[in-house]
Design goal:
- The protein has 447 residues and is of the alpha/beta class.
- Helices cover 38% and strands 18% of the residues.
- It has 17 helices and 15 strands.
- α10 runs parallel beside α17.
- The longest helix has 17 residues.
- The protein is globular.
- The relative contact order is 0.13.
Amino acid sequence: MTKPLLKLKWQGSRFNRLSEGEQGEIVLHNSYAGALARYIGPEAETVRALLKHGLDGAPTGVAAELAFNGFLVPEAADEIVMADDLHRQEHARRDAFELILMPNENCNFRCVYCYESFLHNKMLRPVIDGVLRFAENRIADLDELTVGWFGGEPLTAPEIIEEISTHLRSLCAAHDVAYFSSMVTNGYLLDEKMADMLMRAEVRQFQITLDGPKEHHDRLRLLGNRRDGTFDRIFENLMALTRRDDQFDVVVRVNFDQNSSADIEPFVAELNVALADDARFYLDFHPVGQWGGPNDERLMPCDASNGRESRALFFDRARREGFDLRNLRQRLRPNGAACYAANPNSVVIGSNGTVYKCTVAFEDERNHVGRIDETGDLNLDEERLALWVSDPENLDAGCTSCHFRPSCRGDACPWARIRTGQTHCPSDQINIDKILQVLAQEAVAEG
């Protein structure tokens, strides 16, 4: 029998993070509930006391608000077990599957920091057939199918995207299965005609990279001839998207290095003017890394600390320019910072039929977890697969005690864990106080 609320003892959740603002306000985040709250003045002092000393009996007033949002929990609650259950439920799902497909592993770009070797070209006919058969074999068990398009550059193989999308959409419609589709593209080929096809194919979410203003972008993101820049064409295609009436979302990813970081904030302001407050566009920021490409030694990446600080600064500028920080908020929610590669119900299928878990390190054997055949069988290597979908949060002492555990589960980067033997903390966890302050200011601005 459940103990009555009047007799319960309440305490601050182990998954709380309290960030102090410059004016005495506090910002709270709870990674198990995905809750975010801001308190000022006397109310902030009350919240501090409640979280520190707990509460006997039924919570009322601000204490009831804290309990409702998971910041206060019953003293008897085993939050580690609760977090484990959350993780297990996600891993145990069999009603949802994600296919990340590479219709062409070659690319029309040769970005300076790229790590891919472009060993394969367009998806082979037996692989296309295998993808379709796999979906047909699994569809009766699914409530949701998600397809992500990756490369290389996926838009160099539009006919493959259209064929597979048409078949999968029809299959999902016939079985009352929700269908979602996204694409990581450089945007160079995303003209009006291509956009028409993608909307018909229900590809509605895009990540497109603009690495700062033209002079920096064209230094980093070159066409295949390694001479010509690409900024103008991509920007023109983005502007064409703003003139469409379709429903879609575009994350404009901005990679930055030591050379470009000083010019990113003014660039954000320029983007705001260009996108004319179009709510379908969001910004994301990532420091350029030495990701294993042939030019690693010539790159000028920011060091880890400067990269994190700059990233928070750029998000704050995006907030002040009126951009929605939805993708940043998403990473603070339960499972929000866990990599797709740690999900047993997500696979990457290369153009030659190799099944991967991760869209990095394509040539490393540990990332080759199977090979799809024409019948749709993934032929998975269970031993290699286990490397990616293990349970690191209960093996790493840092994860066990971390407030961010339900958000990343120790799986922010399983590839880094496999390589080093240690869990990898996401940037948003390391720089959580700055991130929380940015998000709190966004909430204040919204009312």
